[in-house]
Every structure is written in structure tokens, then in C-alpha cells.
Amino acid sequence: xxxxxxxxxxxxxxxxxxxxxxxxxxxxxxxxxxxxxxxxxxxxxxxxxxxxxxxxxxxxxxxxxxxxxxxxxxxxxxxxxxxxxxxxxxxxxxxxxxxxxxxxxxxxxxxxxxxxxxxxxxxxxxxxxxxxxxxxxxxxxxxxxxxxxxxxxxxxxxxxxxxxxxxxxxxxxxxxxxxxxxxxxxxxxxxxxxxxxxxxxxxxxxxxxxxxxxxxxxxxxxxxxxxxxxxxxxxxxxxxxxxxxxxxxxxxxxxxxxxxxxxxxxxxxxxxxxxxxxxxxxxxxxxxxxxxxxxxxxxxxxxxxxxxxxxxxxxxxxxxxxxxxxxxxxxxxxxxxxxxxxxxxxxxxxxxxxxxxxxxxxxxxxxxxxxxxxxxxxxxxxxxxxxxxxxxxxxxxxxxxxxxxxxxxxxxxxxxxxxxxxxxxxxxxxxxxxxxxxxxxxxxxxxxxxxxxxxxxxxxxxxxxxxxxxxxxxxxxxxxxxxxxxxxxxxxxxxxxxxxxxxxxxxxxxxxxxxxxxxxxxxxxxxxx
Length: 529
Description:
- The chain is mostly beta strands and 529 residues long.
- It contains eight helices and 31 strands.
- The protein has three domains: 3-43, no CATH class; 65-100 and 135-243 and 501-527, Jelly Rolls (Sandwich), CATH 2.60.120.1440; 248-483, Sandwich (Jelly Rolls).
- Helix 2 (19-31) packs across helix 3 (33-43).
């Protein structure tokens, strides 16, 4: 490897590479496998490079309005700043990765081609539909539209105006997720949000709590590794706790309707209900093109929209009995939402690394694959080899006719992407804390197949999807209950409709409250009139 190539990689990572140098770097990596390997291990951004090269555009930074440091916690200074406008002061004090298309005008969005309507020639050309739906705008900074992304501040400050009408300022060092028109994610650092109008709103998400402003102003900051502090500067703020139940859940016990959200499934001609692996019902798939269960609705026009759009985390959980052959170019889908480069996938596959999506790099052969698009990295698959090595199961162990429990999850608060089998972690990969999922869009989700080309061969039961990463203890508990012939959750009569966040308590102006970062437990509270 040449020093000049390493300098080009560093320039690319910092957004300082020219289009001509970028093309040279790509050409050098094509010729030098060691250089490409070094690039992957140092930056973990190869798929981001693939996405950029596919778009034929140079790396682009979306700049925020930047501010001097030391303003967080000084409410009068922030109010003066808002009154005078959010002036831009571009300084090289932070790194902000934004490997995204330009934000979309909602009035000019075209729905991508429906995969179910594609003809056989199109289906045969690639199992990965290489289209990009437009991204949902979430706000602006200095009149530049922003999409879902992560802000890494080394020091100093940055400001934006959310699409919901909030003026938001961040101060480093810190990491902030910008994932919603009406909210963000605090990983580390300090921030203040002020509502421009009575109708405006803004929320801030943490691992187990959400802070929801009720039309006024608040400050929120991390303190050390374990503590979060909320200061209500004006009006009222509601503190909410995460509902650790699935957003979607199909147990197939006498119905194809999700008991939490009443979302229906439609079965293809070759999918059928059978005796449950747990409970009274399950779905059987016979490895034929019409063997599929289609999820009704839950779509949106843009990436970041629709009920099956996930951002800070996701878990896909299921029981299965598999008859997969493991042969080359045989695919058995468990779950898939095909939104082009923003797809979500959990699948048995053996394709000799088609598309080079595997991260980390693994040997060719049968794998259990978990695919997501992570912001700044593009679409990547966690491909767990079914080789019987290092605690991983061999293919024969998962196709033995027995019931198995699988969970595939990603957590932006830890950066961990993981696969659990029968209650135990068996494979994973790490990303920088704060790396958000980009998902959602116009195409529907399916269970047990995709494009009539990748049918499951076996039985699937108790399929659950969560908008967060399940904890290891929760996964172990669910696996043990399934092993005992019990559902993941104890029966509860008159279960309320699903809500991701549950109100805990409202705090008016004058309260300062601290919480444990991971559990959300109240640590201290003081009131100053």
C-alpha cells in the first residue's frame, strides 16, 4: 500500500476528497485487494463508497449553522441567539457524516416500481433492487435542508430548525442523532430546544426514555457515563418510558391479524396455517413461488416514513423449523421489506457473497443473513456462516427438524449488530455509537418469501418486530419460554393498542431531574421557583 492511497482514504473520511481523487482511489482499490481490506478495517465504510460510486457524485457534507461553545445551560444566551437568528459560523470543529441523497419535495415524490409487478427478466437480473427512494426532510440549518443523519461534535456548537418548528442547539463534545422532523436522539453531549410557536413540538430519545416538550423550552444533557439531566426552562415537559413490547407481532393463533396493531397478513396460494410451534397456529411454507405472507400497508412515500420505518434500533424475532437445502443460490426468506438500498432482511442464503454486502467479510457458503442500511455505511449484511465454528451452528444443526428461536437486532446506542440463536449470541459486528438505520418507504413487507423467488421451506411462528434492540436477558427469557412451549409474553386481557412511548410524569418550569441513562430510573430531582 502506498502512502498516497492512505492519505486519499483519510481525505475521503473527512469529506475533503475531490471527485477526481475519489475516482483514483476507487481504481487503486480495485487493483489492490490489500488496500481495499485496509480501507474496510480502518473505516468500515466500503458500502458507503459503493453507494457514492453508484450515484456518480462526490462525497458531500451538509453543514449546520455552527456556534461558539459554552452556550448550553445559559438560557438567556440561547434566547438572545434565537431572537437574533441562527447565524452561520463555519469552523472545522466537528465531523458530520451525511451520505444521503438530497431531501425530497413531498409533492414531487414518485413511488418506485412495485417488485411484485416486475416481470421474470427483471427478477432474474438481480435479487437486490438497486433503487433509492427519496429521503424524508427533517429540518434545516442555515436554509440547507437536512435528512436523517448523525452529528459528531468534538467541541463548539451547532444549531438547526426542525421541520416541526423547534429551534435546537447542540454543544460538544457529543453525538446527536437527527432522525425525525419532530425529534432527535441524545447519545452524548448537551442540547437546548425551544419551540417557535405553541403548535411546535420536539422530543429527544435516549435508550429507555423520551423527553417530549409541550410547546416551550428545555435543556437536556449527559453527565458522565450513567446519568442524564433534564432542565425545564419554560412551560412543561413530559417524560416517557419505552414500551418494551413488539410494534408488530403475529402468533398465527387462529388469526392472521397482529393483536397489537391489527395489521393483517394476506397469504399466497401455497402458504397455509398449521399447528403452532407454540400456541395453536403457525405458518407453513412449501418452497414454492406463491408460498408467502404479505403484510398489508405500513408503507410511506419516502425513506423514513411508514410504520415499518426504524431508526435507533430494531429486533426481528421468530421461531422456525427449517428444511433449507443450503445449496448455492438457494434463498429462504424469514422476513424482508424490500425498499431497494434501504431494505430490511433476515434470510438463509448461499450466494458466494453476491453484491459484496457482507460486513464483516466471511467465507463463501451457507449463512444466516441480517441486512440493514446504516447511515454512512450504506446497505450491509451481517452474514453468520453456518460452519459449526467459534460457537456458531452448522447448517445441519438448524435444519434438524427441531424448533429454533432466532433474534436479529441492531442498537444505535451501542453500535452492536447481532444475531442470537436459541437464546445465545452467536455472531455480531460493531459500528460507531450513534449510527442510525435508514429504512422505510413505499414497498410492502413479506414473510417467508420475496419476489416469488426466495420461498422459505418449513414453518415460521411467533414473528415479532421491535423498534429497539432486545436485551440479552429478554432474548434468553423468550427462548426459554418457547422451549417450554409457551409464548414470549404472558397473556394479558384487554391489552391496549400499541404505543412505543408511555407517559411517566410531566414536569413544569423550574424542575431539574436526573435519570439513569440505561434504565431510565429516577436518580434525583430539584425544584427552583
